[in-house]
Amino acid sequence: MDAGWDHGLVKGGSALLSRPLQKEGCGLGVSAAMIAGYQILSQIGTGARSTIHKAIDSRTGQVCVLKQVLRQSDDDDRFIAQAEREHEICSQIDHKHLRKSLAIHKIKKWTKVKELYLAMEFVEGLPLEKARPNRLDGFLEIMAKVASGLHALHEVGYVHADIKPNNIILGNKGVVKIIDFGQGCTMGTRKERIQGTPDFIAPEQIRRMPLERTTDVYNLGATMYWVLTDRFYPTQLQQQTGGGSVDLVGPDQVQTPKEINRKMPAVLSQLVMECCQDNPAHRPADMMQVLSRLDVVLRTWAKKRDAHLSKNQGPKKAIEIPANESTTTDESNDE
Predict the structure, then answer these.
(1) pTM for the whole structure
(2) What CATH number does the domain located at 125-310 have?
(3) Residue 104: how many CB atoms within 10 A of its CB?
């Protein structure tokens, strides 16, 4: 899911458009060549009440992502709010592993925002969900960059609250970007309803308890578990019942990454399992601790590799991660 921008512009009507939008189908399609000074190149995705385009800023020539969010009823106010929240968070943080928000434009009818347009940094690449690494060294590099980006986010007082493979973009030359901050919030926020992705959601998100740094630690731990094992960690949000309530189920006997792949470093397996602890107090306290322990894994593995090479036994074979055959679902995600 995507979002992002603000020159501080809040304008009404079609003044934002070089020519009127031509709505198609449900009203989300945009056939106009220009929107708010952005030339539309192609549609690259859709979400709840939104259409996402690759575009060029006609003022700077910068390629970006442009997102249109359309309000059709009072129920859609939350999608507008999520887009506004994403801009609020991402416009004030400049970090190489966090996607930057560039501008936001709003079209109002009376006092209500009717349509919202956001522009954000364009990242050429694939989500981790579709580009899962099969080497341990690649995995460690990616997760260290994600942890670094989350640490920067936490330092300015925000929690992402929806870290998962689909929200981590892998680009060329080692580029790693965290995206989709629509469910982000200030630390200590207690949300009114359950928000998150079932396969990666933390227990405190389900229980509507305050969200802290350790919430992102859990989400990242569940993400690491999936990458390393090709299985979802059994979170407590197992399913939604027909009546709209949720069933809370705890993992009885969760296999560790080490048990699934005996070549997995024990210290890495232990880190992943600690990140996924039900009690936030039993998880690593912050991303700096996660980074430190990932570094220990990398250095330990490097020493074993070097020792192997010194014995003239040829290159040490890299630990392989099981091939991915799973796909994620996000029935409770809002975007």
Answers:
(1) 0.81
(2) 1.10.510.10
(3) 26
